[in-house]
């Protein structure tokens, strides 16, 4: 599976002293901050849209200045390898290389397939879950319950099915059949 997921960050991260950084992905827009992440795999039923959408190698950092003017006391959280589970409507990520954590709930209420996949106008609301809000509030010394239930951003995801892998014997058979057909065609033209 291929395609892309875009996330427009709406949370007032700067007001909280947090600076996002793009580590693996692309900057789609600077204003509003919109990040693009390649879809690298997953297991999605394209008729029901049930399953998972993986973004291996995609990552962002969230860095907070913990008080001094220098960078010595900065704290960084790295979120990587994003995975969307459409069945549970949860976006999870690996946090600092320590394992997958459920970060955001996805609100798909009232959205049709066209709205969900419109990369230029993200409309899926990403809302902080307990684990994400607790992690960030503890890490960046933010007043409790500031992030719980708050919107992180808006997303759109446009997965694209990839053609099935073809085994070598099948590939060689198809090539041989094609070459045989071409030879027969040329032979008939020469007659």
Indicate the overall shape: elongated
Low-confidence stretches: none
Largest sheet: 11 strands, antiparallel
- Mean pLDDT across every amino acid position: 86
How many structural domains? 2
In what range is the share of β-strand residues? over 45%
Percent helix: 10-25%
**SSE string, helices as H and strands as E:** EEEEEEEEEHEHEH
Total count of helical runs of at least 4 residues: 3
SS elements, strand count = 11
User: What value does the Rg take, in angstroms?
Assistant: 22 Å
Give the termini separation: 47 Å
Q: In terms of structural class, how would the helical and strand content be classed?
A: alpha+beta
Word description of this protein:
The chain is of the alpha+beta class and 191 residues long. It folds into 2 domains: 159 residues; 26 residues. The chain is 19% helix and 45% strand. It has 3 helices and 11 strands; from the N terminus they run E-E-E-E-E-E-E-E-E-H-E-H-E-H. Strands 1, 2, 3, 4, 5, 6, 7, 8, 9, 10 and 11 form an 11-stranded antiparallel beta sheet that branches. The chain is elongated, with a radius of gyration of 22 Å. The model has no long low-confidence stretch (mean pLDDT 86).
């Amino acid at each position: 599976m291929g395609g892309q997921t875009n996330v427009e960050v709406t949370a007032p991260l700067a007001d909280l002293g947090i600076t996002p950084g793009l580590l693996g992905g692309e900057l789609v827009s600077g204003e509003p901050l919109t990040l693009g992440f390649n879809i690298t795999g997953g297991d999605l039923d394209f008729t029901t849209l049930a399953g998972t959408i993986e973004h291996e190698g995609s990552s962002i950092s969230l860095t907070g200045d913990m008080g001094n003017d220098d960078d010595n006391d900065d704290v960084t959280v790295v979120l990587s390898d994003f995975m969307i589970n459409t069945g549970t409507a949860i976006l999870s990520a690996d946090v600092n290389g320590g394992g997958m954590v459920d970060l955001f709930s996805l609100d798909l209420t009232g959205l049709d397939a066209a709205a969900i996949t419109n990369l230029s106008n993200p409309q899926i609301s990403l809302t902080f879950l307990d684990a994400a809000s607790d992690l960030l509030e503890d890490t960046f010394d933010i007043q409790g319950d500031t992030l719980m239930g708050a919107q992180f951003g808006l997303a759109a995801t446009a997965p694209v099915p990839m053609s099935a892998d073809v085994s070598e014997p099948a590939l060689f058979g198809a090539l041989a059949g094609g070459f045989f057909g071409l030879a027969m065609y040329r032979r008939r033209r020469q007659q």
